[in-house]
Structure formats: structure tokens, C-alpha cells
Design a protein that fits this description.
288 residues
């Protein structure tokens, strides 16, 4: 080591002391800034905690507000929508019911109208039925008169009364029907002949009766019997037929019995196997 005095020692020491002081001041300043920073950090932490607490309080308030205000309103709104849907459904049901009631009212009107028409138709039918019955009775009465005028002269000793039944328009002789007269073939034949002549006379004399003016009576003399009695009855039947025919009608009688003297106005044509009533084609050989 050099023992020589150092002229710059003091200055260097002073410089070092100054630098140390500055370093201490800087360290103190840093410590102060660090303390400030720590206080700022702590303040920020406190502020964050307060903010978090405030946020938690606000969240709690918000939840309470939602639970107290919003949720009931949302539930009320949902109920209101459901009630609205139910009311709309009821309204549609009421509209459908009103339409049904309108249809029912219209049907009731139609039913009432149909009932009135049915009553009117029933009255008209009853009136028409009464008129028809009256007309039927009147027609039967007129036919009875014609029938009696025809059939009684055919057998005046056997027939006391002759009428046409208004229900069946069938003839009755002495109050008996043709079925009840079946045992007397002569009376049945006379009745049939007179009935057909009655139709012919009705076509001529009754304006509301539309009947044919041509009659073909087969076997009108069957059952009259033979001898003078049969001849008398046959003459009476043929005489009435000739009188009824006249110039505006035609009556064809076909009978296998031998006729008595033909009354005036009766044209007689005899037929046999050589002269058939209806011609038939005959084979040339009997072997065919």
C-alpha cells in the first residue's frame, strides 16, 4: 500500500456520501411509492369488494324484484293468455251454438210450414176422398140402375134385385155375390152377360166413364138348361143383348148351344170344323 496522502479522497468520500444520501432518498421515495401503491391496491381491493358486495346486493334485489314483480306478472300474463284462449274457444263454441240454433230455428220454421202443408194436404185428401167416395157411390148407384134394367129382364122370375157393390164394383144378385151364386151356373152366366152389357151401356150413357164399346162374350148361355125353360131364358138374354147393342156398339156372342129363334137385330153365323171361328193352318197330311 502506498502511504502517500490522497488528495481526492475527501472529494470522493463526499461524492459517495452524496450518492448514498441520494440512494437513501430514492429508496425512501420508492418505499413511499410502494406504500402508496400498496394503499392503492388495498383501496382497489376494497373498492372491488365493495363493488362485489354492491353487485351481490343488486343481484339479490334484482332476484327479489323478479320474484316479487316480474315473475308474478309473467305468471299473470301466462294465465291471461290461457284465459284468453279458453274465452276464444268458448266464443267459437257460442258462435257454433248460435249457428246451430239458427239452423234449428230454420228447421222449426220448415217443420211448421210442412205441418201446415201436411194439414192442408190431409184436409184436401179428406175432401178428395169424400168427393171420391161420393162419386163412387153415385157411380155405383147409376151402374146399379143400368145393371138392374139389364139383368132382371133376362130372368124376371129368378132375379128380384140387382145392384153394384160401391166398395168392390162387383155385381150382387138378390143380395148375393157371384161366389155365393156359384151353384147356379145359369144365374152366374146371366150375371156375367148383364155385367158386360152394363159396361157397354155405361160407356154410352155416362160421360165420366171411359169404357170400351165392344164386347166379346164367350158362352153366355152356359148353365141355362134345355127344354122350354132354357129356351125362354136364352131368348130373354139374346133379346136384351140385341136391344143394348144399337148402332154405336158391337157385341159378339160365341156359344156352342143351339140358338132359338134369333131376335130382331141379332146376326147369327154358324161355325163348325169346316168353317172355324178362328182359321188355323192345317197340315196337308195327318202324319205330320
Amino acid at each position: 500500500m502506498c502511504g502517500q496522502p490522497d488528495p481526492g479522497l475527501g472529494e470522493r468520500q463526499a461524492q459517495r456520501a452524496l450518492e448514498l444520501t441520494r440512494a437513501q432518498e430514492a429508496a425512501a421515495a420508492v418505499d413511499s411509492e410502494l406504500s402508496k401503491a400498496q394503499r392503492s391496491v388495498q383501496s382497489a381491493v376494497d373498492t372491488r369488494r365493495k363493488a362485489e358486495q354492491g353487485a351481490q346486493r343488486l343481484a339479490g334485489r334484482a332476484g327479489a324484484y323478479r320474484a316479487q314483480e316480474i315473475t308474478p306478472r309473467e305468471e299473470a300474463r301466462s294465465r291471461a293468455r290461457a284465459d284468453e284462449s279458453a274465452v276464444r274457444a268458448k266464443l267459437e263454441a257460442v258462435k257454433a251454438r248460435r249457428q246451430e240454433l239458427a239452423q234449428v230455428a230454420e228447421l222449426e220454421k220448415k217443420e211448421a210450414s210442412s205441418s201446415r202443408q201436411a194439414e192442408e194436404a190431409a184436409k184436401a185428401w179428406a175432401a178428395a176422398e169424400g168427393d171420391a167416395l161420393q162419386h163412387r157411390k153415385q157411380t155405383a148407384k147409376e151402374l146399379s140402375q143400368i145393371f138392374a134394367d139389364l139383368v132382371i129382364p133376362m130372368a124376371p122370375d129368378k132375379i128380384r134385385s140387382a145392384v153394384i157393390d160401391p166398395k168392390t164394383l162387383a155385381p150382387k144378385i138378390n143380395g148375393r155375390t157371384l161366389k155365393q151364386l156359384a151353384r147356379s151356373a145359369g144365374l152366374v152366366s146371366i150375371t156375367h152377360t148383364a155385367f158386360h152389357l152394363m159396361v157397354l151401356e155405361a160407356a154410352r150413357s155416362m160421360p165420366l166413364v171411359v169404357l170400351p164399346r165392344c164386347q166379346w162374350l164367350d158362352a153366355p148361355l152356359d148353365g141355362l138348361g134345355g127344354g122350354p125353360e132354357g129356351e125362354r131364358l136364352a131368348n130373354a138374354v139374346l133379346t136384351v143383348c140385341a136391344e143394348v147393342t144399337g148402332s154405336d156398339a158391337q157385341v159378339i156372342l160365341t156359344t156352342p148351344q143351339a140358338l132359338p129363334a134369333a131376335p130382331q137385330g141379332l146376326h147369327v153365323t154358324e161355325h163348325d170344323s169346316t168353317r172355324p171361328l178362328i182359321p188355323h193352318a192345317r197340315p196337308e197330311s195327318d202324319d205330320l
